[in-house]
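Design a sequence for this backbone.
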């Protein structure tokens, strides 16, 4: 008989995780690393739901078996490819009939199945609770173009714990942030990814997070996490303006000019009409450094305002001429001098 586990135990149990909900539900959000293993297609799920509403539970169950029954042999074969050792984890929306039905089939095929008690809904509640768990956050600050993301990953390479929100959101966090990036995840999936990462951090060690606003493109940082970030101390990397412009040209130099112009138009109101027109004229002539020099007026002003608003301890580190690895080393030296 399948064992039912709470989210903490379920996530630590052996075996691949199968999500037996419909493809549409999976696309909206799922446990990271879970494999889509739908009992029903979206259309089949809708058909069973309509039957349940109009004809009752028994008829819906009967219809469900009629639809899924021919798939059972395929489920066993597919599961065997995914879990040769016979260990499987599985969930549906609320830990009900869909996961129960598929687990019964797989157990008949010789698998040992662990079910998520309460299903995906329980996982979502567990994830929200993770955001309220305090960690020793250090905010990696620095004005636009200082190379914070590269330094963040250099910190990880040196053994530090990091939460790369921009990486999870697939967005660099500005009007230009989607350029060269794959499509963003749903906000639901963004939160799922953060929850798994947050739960995995050692609470006795610091976690570095890049300074962010509440929104990263279309994704929203969970409010409980953002409040922790807002109260955390900041170590700010500082580079001369010419290095910042070089890094920005390196980051966006391959982007289509029309997309750069479109991103610039989106901040026209904040940048100002004259600066916007001048920046666009530079972009049209391929003078990216000159354009970004004007655009930094808005981003530097916004960053400075946010620091003043936060009123938290701020520690500057000069990383002029430094590679990301060298900058990370300087940051760690500063952090140890302050807190160790």
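Sequence:
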């Amino acid at each position: 008989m399948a064992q039912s586990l709470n989210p903490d135990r379920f996530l630590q149990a052996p075996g691949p995780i199968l999500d037996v909900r419909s493809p549409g539900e999976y696309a909206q959000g799922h446990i990271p690393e879970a494999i889509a293993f739908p009992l029903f297609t979206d259309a089949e799920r809708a058909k069973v739901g309509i039957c349940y509403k109009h004809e009752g539970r028994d008829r819906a169950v009967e219809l469900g078996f009629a639809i899924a029954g021919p798939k059972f042999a395929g489920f066993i074969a597919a599961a065997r490819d995914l879990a040769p050792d016979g260990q499987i984890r599985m969930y549906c929306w609320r830990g009900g009939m869909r996961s129960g039905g598929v687990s019964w089939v797989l157990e008949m095929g010789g698998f040992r199945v662990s079910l998520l008690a309460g299903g995906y809904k329980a996982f979502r509640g567990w994830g929200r609770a993770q955001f309220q768990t305090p960690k020793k956050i250090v905010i990696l600050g620095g004005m636009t173009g200082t190379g914070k993301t590269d330094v963040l990953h250099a910190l990880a390479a040196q053994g530090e714990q990091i939460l790369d929100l921009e990486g999870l959101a697939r967005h660099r966090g500005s009007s230009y942030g989607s350029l060269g990036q794959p499509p963003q995840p749903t906000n639901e999936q963004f939160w799922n990814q953060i929850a798994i990462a947050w739960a995995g951090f050692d609470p006795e060690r610091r976690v570095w997070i890049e300074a962010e606003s509440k929104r990263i493109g279309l994704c929203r940082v969970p409010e409980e996490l953002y409040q922790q970030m807002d109260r955390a101390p900041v170590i700010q990397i500082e580079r001369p303006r010419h290095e910042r412009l070089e890094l920005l040209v390196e980051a966006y130099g391959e982007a289509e000019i029309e997309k750069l112009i479109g991103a610039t138009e989106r901040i026209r109101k904040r940048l100002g009409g004259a600066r916007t027109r001048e920046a666009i004229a530079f972009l049209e002539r391929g003078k990216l450094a000159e354009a970004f020099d004007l655009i930094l007026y808005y981003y530097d002003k916004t960053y400075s305002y946010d620091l003043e608003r936060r009123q938290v301890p701020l520690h500057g580190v000069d990383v002029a001429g430094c590679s990301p690895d060298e900058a990370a080393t300087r940051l760690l030296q500063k952090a140890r001098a302050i807190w160790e």
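The chain has a mean pLDDT of 95.
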